Amino acid sequence: MRAAALQLNSTEDRDRNLATADRLVRAAAADGATLVALPEKWSLLGTEEQLAAGAEPLDGRAISWARGIARELGIDLVAGSIAERRAGHERIANTSVHVGPDGELQAVYRKIHLFDVEVGGTVYRESDGAEPGEEIVTSTLDDGTGLGLAVCYDLRFAELFRILALRGALVVTLPSAFTLATTRDHWEPLLRARAIENQTFMVAPNQIGVAPPGNRSGGRSLIVDPSGTVLATAPDAECHVVADLDLERQAEIRAALPALANRRPQAYAWPQEARV
Question: Which residues are catalytic?
Answer without folding.
Answer: 40, 111, 152
